[in-house]
Amino acid sequence: MQTLISPSLLAADFMNLKADVEMVNKSEADWFHLDIMDGVFVPNISYGLPVVEQISKIATKPLDVHLMIVDPDRYIEAFKKAGSDLLTVHYEACTHLHRTVQNIHSHGMKAGVSLNPHTPVSVLEDIIQDIDLVLLMSVNPGFGGQSFIENTYSKIEKLKALVAEKKTELIIEIDGGVNLETGKKLVEAGADALVAGSFVFNSENPTQTIADLKQL
Ligand SMILES: O=C(CO)[C@H](O)[C@H](O)COP(=O)(O)O
Ligand SMILES: [Co+2]
């Protein structure tokens, strides 16, 4: 399977968001990665439901929504209505993660679970058969443009071993500090999907940068 590429609009030009959404539409990207931050779970506030809703009106690819918010159950229905296709919540933000995953599925969305860099993949042992995607954070969540944390490669290997042991299938997505160099090693380690924000939107030619990532 070719690597799935999910450009993060956190690094887009918010004064020209429509143009950046159209660029991603025309590119080889597979999804739109939308980072929702509440200023509580992470020390930053990004954008919210009205922006997601507007993006969904012109996006021609699935919306991969990454919720960095506490108690995400309160907003599952709202993100479905705003156009989310895949909703990822943080393990660290959910008291009743299994219920949250059921809630996401009952709203007709794919369910992802994200782990902070310090959270071991072993915490997924009893949820892994119920989810569609694991999002491994390769930076501490909250900001774009941070340096990649190297232990992510070994976490992918541990996650793949857990997936095999549980005889299940899911997408392994990596988020933070992805560029051609880290991306190549991530794919070699077993990543299925790569999120890239600043590497794409700060490049001279974002469409070509997405195509280069797609070749990995
Ligand atoms: O979830 C995120 C931050 O919390 C972003 O998706 C991630 O940081 C992407 O940005 P970059 O590619 O610039 O590291
Ligand atoms: Co993200």
Automatic annotation (TrEMBL):
It catalyses: D-ribulose 5-phosphate = D-xylulose 5-phosphate. One of its GO terms (cellular component) is cytoplasm. Pathway: Carbohydrate degradation. Binds 1 divalent metal cation per subunit. The active site is at 35 (proton acceptor), 175 (proton donor). GO terms for biological process: pentose catabolic process; pentose-phosphate shunt. One of its GO terms (molecular function) is D-ribulose-phosphate 3-epimerase activity. InterPro entries: Aldolase_TIM (IPR013785), Ribul_P_3_epim (IPR026019), Ribul_P_3_epim-like (IPR000056), RibuloseP-bd_barrel (IPR011060). Keywords: Carbohydrate metabolism, Cobalt, Isomerase, Manganese, Metal-binding, Zinc. Its cofactor is Mn(2+); Fe(2+); Co(2+); Zn(2+). Substrate binds at residues 8, 66, 142-145, 175-177, 197-198. Its EC number is 5.1.3.1. A divalent metal cation binds at residues 33, 35, 66, 175. PROSITE patterns: RIBUL_P_3_EPIMER_1, RIBUL_P_3_EPIMER_2. CDD domains: RPE. The keyword Transport does not apply. It comes from the Bacteria. NCBIfam families: PRK05581.1-4, rpe. Catalyzes the reversible epimerization of D-ribulose 5-phosphate to D-xylulose 5-phosphate. This is Ribulose-phosphate 3-epimerase. It comes from Ancylomarina subtilis. The lineage of its organism: Bacteria, Pseudomonadati, Bacteroidota, Bacteroidia, Marinilabiliales.
